[in-house]
Amino acid sequence: MTPSYSLHPDRLFPSDPGTRAIARRLHQAVDSLPIVSPHGHTDPRWFAENQTFANPAQLFITSDHYLLRMLYSQGVRLEDLGVSAQTGTSAPVSPQEVWRLFAKHYYLFRGTPSRYWVDHALVEVLDIRTRLTLENADEIYEAIQEKLQSPEFLPRALYERFSIEVLATTDDALDDLKYHQQIRESEWLGRVIPTFRPDRLLDPEFSNFTESLTRLGELTGEDTYRWQGYLEALRKRREFFQKLGATATDHGPLSAFTANLSLTECETLLSAALRGSLSAEQAECFRGQMLTEMAKMSVDDGLVMQIHPGSYRNHNAGVYQTFGWDKGADIPLKMEFTRALKPLLDLVGNDPRLRIILFTLDETTYSRELAPLAGHYPCLRLGPPWWFHDSVEGMKRYKTQVIETTGFYNTAGFNDDTRAFLSLRARHDMARRIDCSILAEMVADHRLPEEEALEIAIDLSGPLARRVYRF
């Protein structure tokens, strides 16, 4: 083994000694507070069945698109990382070989949030006190594999060890939610709830759109080939999710465009969508109308609406055709919100029952559009830095650009948006340290008294997200 490795207790804090001392005091108050995880992509099956995780490669690498995209960019084949081709033609590769390959290229992640998250998981969760290298890869793999077989590393035990208060998964609108039902019927007290993700039912350009609407009709007993039946079927699915604890919906449209069309126009669009004859402009109108319809439903049923626009999904056609979704080939797009959201906001934007959380991959919209919008409309809140910006500098840029206009309390706190369960605690650790650092700077500049900075730090660590997501 290489020499002992640990994480510095002052990591991510300001370098100025006086400001760092303030950050330390703030962080001491929030470090051990419970985690509220209102948006993520962990698998509810883990907590329903509570079985051991398969191996270190599957747990850390194969399902983490942050890691896959960096390795792929440097010429590492996805097949060699254990990612199976959809055709089933990939030769199997041993998890230990995947781990060695990852260790060989671990230097690529220097300076990235992925490095911070993996190091945190290795050191703080798995008690691996040596830096990962190719030379010690086998030894570390075996040490992790041994730990994963112990009761302390079962999913429910880790949930409790991480002090998670609530964890929301993201679930397809047609999912039977059997694992959520299994969790509720068990004697375990952990709170894992679903989130309603209806993208494939709202986007006529989604693959198998007509088949999805057919299935929606079968599940709900509604005629989904008619506009009113289609909307009623979606209402029924939302109600089904709510019965199993859902408090939010999640939407990933290509843009933030919304519409407020007449009933006749809506019926015409649905008919054309089912025939597969929509133009690109009509498809955008359909998606925009459905965002508005989802907002109207949220007024009625109280589900918090999350909108994540602006990702060109599966940009690499070859990777998508071979390996499918979520393999690291999604690229941000330029976004516009002010005009795009106006039809929706004109209709329901002043209704106090509505709550919409906006996210962006286009940082240029922070101060120009999103902060002024959330700083005015009662229904709007800003989600935390998302995806490519869920990073040290991304969090700093976000706070610098939005807080003076929105204040802290028109934001939604933090969510980890993770698929990699062991990184969940690491992501909240990073966010809390950055928040404490930014607040310490404000105290040092005499913009805030320290007692108010402490109140904000506590709110950002969980209570704010708890209120915004209506837990």
| Name of the level-1 CATH class of the largest domain | Alpha Beta
Shape: globular
Rg, nearest Å: 23 Å
The parts where pLDDT drops under 50 for at least 5 residues are none
Count of helical regions: 21
Trace the largest sheet across and list its strands.
Answer: 6-7-10-11
Q: Indicate how many domains the architecture comprises.
A: 2
Q: Tell me the name of the CATH homologous superfamily of the largest domain.
A: Metal-dependent hydrolases
Structural class: alpha/beta
Mean pLDDT across residues: 96
Protein traits:
2 domains; 471 residues; uronate isomerase, domain 2, chain A; alpha/beta; 49% helix; three-stranded parallel sheet; single chain
